[in-house]
Write a structure and sequence with these properties.
The chain has 307 residues and is an alpha+beta fold. It has eleven helices and six strands. The chain folds into three domains: 99 residues, no CATH class; 94 residues, no CATH class; 91 residues, Chitinase A, domain 3, CATH 3.10.50.
Length: 307
């Protein structure tokens, strides 16, 4: 896609700038050192900062560098690494690399980098969805695409006693207008607050979207949790469909991200099953207590994290 091509070109321009800087830095070297020095961007008290280190930082920030500012970005990165190398050398001189807390932080950083590298490798194995898969997803979710709507809702938060929750939920969902809903709330002497909100289909959790899409104006759905009720009452809905062509990119991105999430979850689960994990002391009790606690059902991911 054009954006990807632009990004690649952008990174290429940044790297070219760094290479130019490195060539200037190493031009006065001996002929026998040309091969090795070509990878050196700058030396700080004899310690080398390589082109690869600079390229890594540039690739991380390439998307945030405006066109025409590649040279300035490269200079900032070079000077930043010089400052970093100078202070790191000063830290080693003061033996901070032997400080127990610093050693722990360095080990934690190393563990984090290795973990991220492994997870990225798992993600890289994910394949792109086919056109048929994208079409099937589009057809399977009409409320996100062909029948997409913009919803105007009243959201009412109400305290509901546990012993009457089922009956009250039925009464609230039986109301056919906002006035009748408020009558039920007042008749039951319930404390509640209300606000109106506008929301598009892709901002509604997938598990909830079909329920909202099935409401007629004035009807409500009630979500119960921990002694509180969340009442969503439809005021109106405006049809705003998304055609297949513009939806395809969104669907492809969502499916790839979903596959990556699944790949990471399954990969980590497999590693856990193959590993010997022994919790010690208070952490054994902590993990045991958490494992025996009732599971909390999380809301489905928002459809906007989907297309």
């Amino acid at each position: 896609m054009p954006m990807q091509i632009s990004s690649v070109a952008h990174r290429g321009a940044l790297l070219a700038t760094v290479l130019c800087i490195s060539l200037v830095t190493t031009a006065c070297g001996n002929a026998g050192d040309k091969k090795a020095s070509s990878q050196v961007a700058v030396k700080v008290n004899g310690e080398e900062v390589s082109v690869h280190q600079i390229d890594l930082m540039l690739r991380r920030q390439a998307a945030n560098v405006p066109a025409g500012q590649q040279d300035a970005a490269a200079r900032r990165v070079v000077e930043s690494l010089v400052d970093q190398e100078i202070t790191a050398q000063a830290a080693r001189k003061d033996k901070l690399d032997q400080d127990p807390q610093v050693v722990q932080m360095m080990e934690a950083a190393k563990r984090d980098v290795l973990s991220r590298a492994y997870l990225e490798r798992l993600s890289d194995k994910v394949t792109e969805p086919s056109s048929d898969e994208i079409d099937r997803y589009y057809d399977a979710h009409p409320n996100l695409f062909s029948q997409r709507r913009l919803y105007s809702l009243q959201e009412t938060t109400v305290a509901i006693p546990a012993d009457s929750a089922v009956a009250l939920k039925a009464k609230l969902e039986a109301a056919t207008s906002l006035d009748k809903l408020n009558e039920v709330l007042r008749a039951e002497s319930l404390r509640f607050t209300s606000r109106q909100t506008s929301i598009s289909a892709e901002d509604v959790p997938l598990a909830l979207l079909d329920q909202i899409a099935g409401l007629r104006p004035g009807q409500s759905i009630v979500q119960m949790r921990d002694g509180a009720g969340r009442v969503l009452t439809l005021i109106n809905a405006q049809l705003s469909p998304i055609a297949p062509a513009p939806a395809k990119r969104l669907i492809a991105t969502y499916l790839v991200n979903e596959r990556k999430r699944n790949a990471l979850q399954h990969g980590v689960k497999a590693l856990r099953e193959q590993s010997k994990i022994e919790y010690q002391g208070k952490f054994a009790e902590l993990v045991s207590t958490a494992a025996s606690a009732p599971a909390v059902t999380a809301e489905a991911p928002a459809a906007a994290s989907a297309p």
